[in-house]
């Protein structure tokens, strides 16, 4: 479904951009050009952004071992 008519961008394309690292409206604006003209798509784009980030798997942070804090 088209979410930004001015730029012809679909929700699928927004999801792909988020999954590839565009994790903010500013990043999506720079990457896809969404919300740069009439800005009527802002609410829809923000919803797709939020839903995609919420659905993303959580990546565990690596353990920090005591050796990490020793000076060389
Ligand atoms: Fe996205 Fe107009 S619909 S800028």
From TrEMBL:
UniProt keywords, alphabetically? 2Fe-2S, Electron transport, Iron, Iron-sulfur, Metal-binding, Transport
Pfam families given in the database record: Fer2_BFD
Coiled-coil regions in this chain? none
Q: Which GO terms describe its molecular function?
A: 2 iron, 2 sulfur cluster binding; metal ion binding
What InterPro entries does the record tag this protein with?
Answer: BFD-associated_ferredoxin, BFD-like_2Fe2S-bd_dom, BFD-like_2Fe2S-bd_dom_sf
Domain BFD-like [2Fe-2S]-binding: start-end pairs: 2-50
Instruction: Report the cofactors.
Output: [2Fe-2S] cluster
Q: Does the keyword Cytoplasm apply?
A: no
Among its keywords, does the record have Transport? yes
Q: Which family does it belong to?
A: Belongs to the Bfd family.
This chain's protein is named Bacterioferritin-associated ferredoxin
What organism is the protein native to? Ectothiorhodospira marina
